[in-house]
Amino acid sequence: MDPLSEFIRGITKDNPIFGLVLGLCPTLAVTTSIDNAIGMSAGTAFVLICSNLMVSGLRKQIPASVRLPIFILIIATFVSIVKMVMEAYFPPMYAALGVFIPLIVVNCIIIGRAEAYANKNNMFYSLIDALGSSAGFLLVLVLIGGIRELLGTGGIAIFGTQLVSIPINPITFMILSPGAFLTIGILMAIVNYRKAKKLARGG
Amino acid sequence: MVADASLFQIFMDGVFIKNFLVIQFLGLCSFVGVTKDTKSAAGMSGAVIFVMTLAATVSFLIYNFVLIPLKLEFLDLISFIVVIAALVQLVEFVVRKNVPSLYRSLGIYLPLITTNCAVLGVVLLNVLNEYSFIQSVVFGASAGLGYTIVMLMMSGIRERTTLVNVPSSMRGLPHAFLIATMLSMAFVNYFGVIPL
After folding, report:
1. Apex CA A105: angle with CA A69 and CA A12, to 5°?
2. Using one digit for the tens of pLDDT, what is the confidence trace for A19-62?
3. Is B42 at the interface with chain A, CB within 8 A?
């Protein structure tokens, strides 16, 4: 196995959202702005990396029959850490993400990677896998958040700095919940279209 | 925060205004996963109403009578997830032993519920909103009811549109998401504007 290709696999083929379709709830709920998307991906990435490392390090000690409850306990511990750190040091971000920070616990991406990858591979590759999946998750969240923020507020601001602004009437629809479904539906259709085209070319 | 909200308001919040699936995006995996036909959507919804109400009840008791007196509030997340997992397991045993016909229709959906974020979401929102015991239970049950309504609508629409000729790259999930867009618009526009 080549570490670089393992990393890229997490962004492309095994992308948590478009490839594996895991963890839809945070993807749609917190992507009203790029700020929230970055905060959510950072929290998820921390939990994913730590839990992958821990599961991989303990994989010889964990009995196969009770592995899922143990994974959940490991994940819940790290999520509690993220929750407390965010509450203490980034209160505005914590208020914006609300109940979705504790809900990282039931995010299928994390338990999915623990079960499918970290439980079978050594710590180094598990770390690479976690980094790749986190990067894939971050990219998709920032993409969806960017589209919704741009169309919904007429501009993109990252942590208070205005980056882009377009002269349109803000479409409030995109910030509300239907906009999230519309954005991910269209993006997923584009991904499917590209895949079908690639297949037709024989790639 | 809203601890003095009336029961009717909490009920309307749970079912329509803060609908778990189309407004708050909780439990989406099952929303796109098991809505291909009405029968499995109904089975899943039944199991969710049941477990959600129970989880709201039990976790309220645990949080207020075990964690707070012992000053262990920081363990809330871990204890809730353990409680839900144990509860689902228990419900499975009891239903299988006593009501085999119900078990046959709910059976395979019960284990799925442990990782359904809607159930953990109800429990966490109850703590966040500082609801009393009755309010927590009402919120749990009404959130389950709202979940059921949307699941049944969604599966009905998807059943009727299986034969519609959509572009090939739109088939499956993208199509489901566009249906969800319209459902969500209906909920935002019809129920979001009613001041309670």
Report:
1. 105
2. 878 888 888 888 888 999 999 999 999 999 999 999 999 999 98
3. no
CB contact under 8 A, B188 and A24: no
pLDDT in tens, B14-60: 888 888 888 888 888 788 878 888 888 888 888 888 889 999 999 99
Q: How far apart are the first and last CA of chain B?
A: 16
Determine which of A90-104, A154-168, B65-79 has the lowest per-residue pLDDT on average: A154-168
CA proximity to B47, closest of B99, B125, B124, B10: B99
Which residue range is the domain that position A176 belongs to?
Answer: 3-200
Strands of chain A, DSSP E: 155-158, 161-165
Sequence length of chain B is 196
pLDDT at B1: 46
Cα torsion through A170, A171, A176, A179, rounded to 10: -130
A176 neighbourhood in chain B, CB within 8 Å:
184, 188
Q: What is the per-residue pLDDT across B142-177, written as a single tens digit (0 to 9) for each? A: 999 999 999 999 999 999 988 888 888 888 889 999
CA distances from residue B102 to A45, A139, B93 in whole angstroms, order as listed: 40, 43, 12
CB-based contact (8 Å) between B181 and chain A? yes
Say yes or no: B128 contacts chain A, CB-CB below 8 A.
Answer: yes
Mutation target among B126, B177, B184 for the A interface, most CBs of A within 10 A: B177
Torsion of CA A23, A24, A25, A30, to 10 degrees: 100
